[in-house]
Amino acid sequence: MTPTAILLKRCIADVFLFAAVVIVPWWLVFPVALFLVFYFERYYEALLAAFIFDLLYGIPLRMLFGFPFLATFVFILFFYAAENIKPNVRLRR
Amino acid sequence: MRLLLEAIILVAVLMLLWFFGFSRVAAMPVSILARPLLYARLFVHDEAAWVAGFLRSEASLIAENKELKAEQARLQTALAGYDFLRQEYRSLAASFGRHPEESLAVLAAVLAKPPQTPYDTLIIDVGRKEGITVGDSVFAESIPIGEVTEVFSRSSKVVLFSSPGKESTVAVGDDALAVSARGEGGGSFSLSLPRDVALKEGDPVFLPGVPPVLFGEVGSVEVRPTDSFKTALIRGPVNIAQLRFVRVVKIDRS
User: Residue A93 pLDDT more than 60?
Assistant: First the structure.
């Protein structure tokens, strides 16, 4: 696949992901974002989407001393775990 | 190594945003951009419900129609009794020098609610322009369900009392014992009280005040023989997932 085609795919995925953060229930958005992290290289947009999710719906969490960015923090962990796992896993391409 | 460093930097940036309160500044443009999408979602949801009506059988629609009419008749009767009791209460309160005031309320449409939102929060379509401020109470009809925690120019975020970990002081039992109700999510609460306090399924739970306001109803009571406390699970009277409109009542800051 050409870099342009990959970029186009990635842009389309970004649009859908950011719209999904606003429109779709959170328990559906996160698996989709996780899939995209594995599908694309260095999919930083997932971190941005999680941040937007926290800005829109997040509240200070008592169990975390008022920290409101739980989704972003969790996604940072997922992202970097995925980036470490991906070289060792045979994905389609 | 580079990945780890990136992760640490990102977490540090998050912490700084939280510590210096920049998250509220960043939330403003996000809420402005999200608002039309939320309205679009509501529109699609309503249209989909209308289309789904065509797929239902005539028999099921007739049966539901009959059921709803009977329910409406029952509720109208109950409402007539409620209006009478309300008038009686006002007269009684006035005779003791208490004059329940009509509070200033703003009607708001619910743009997002559970399960779309986590943590039992709502996004409503009124904000600073409509005079909403942090701390204003939110009601579904006459039932208090939460309070405003963040205000943007034309929308606000409401945290429901049932939000996990949120504590509210309520009154239970014949003696109106004050206890702390803890949000468990999904419109439910739990409270812990001494085992010898009389409480059973169906007992009302109130927010103390004049007049006391219905907070919920006891769903179940759990106690083990060795415990000195029992746990009551409370369900709120409002179905949060079906909320379409709420009233925002401004708190008196005078």
Answer: no
The pLDDT of residue B110 is 93
Which pLDDT band holds residue A49 (cuts at 50, 70, 90)? very high
Convert B14-80 into a string of H (helix), E (strand) and C (coil): HHHHHHCCHHHHHHHHHHHHHHHHHHHHHHHHHHHHHHHHHCCCHHHHHHHHHHHHHHHHHHHHHHH
CB–CB contact A80 B121 (8 Å): no
pLDDT at B100 over 60: no
Tokens representing residue A22 in the block:
């606003």
What are the pLDDT digits (tens) for B214-246? Answer: 888 888 888 888 888 889 999 888 888 888 899
Instruction: Determine the residue among B1, B9, B17 to mutate to test chain A binding: the one whose Cβ has the most chain A Cβ atoms within 10 Å.
Output: B17
Inter-chain touch B18–A24, beta carbons under 8 Å: no
In 3D, which of B203, B199, B189 has the Cα closest to residue B145?
B189
Contact B131, B137 (CB under 8 A): no
Q: Please report residues of B whose CB lies closer than 8 A to that of A61.
A: 119, 165
Chain A partners of B149 at a C-beta cutoff of 8 Å? 59
The pLDDT, as a whole number, for residue B28 is 83
Cβ distance A69 to B40 less than 8 Å, yes or no, reads: no
Asked casually if ipTM beats, i.e. exceeds, 0.90, the reply is: no
Q: Tell me B131's DSSP state.
A: T
CB contact under 8 A, A55 and B27: yes
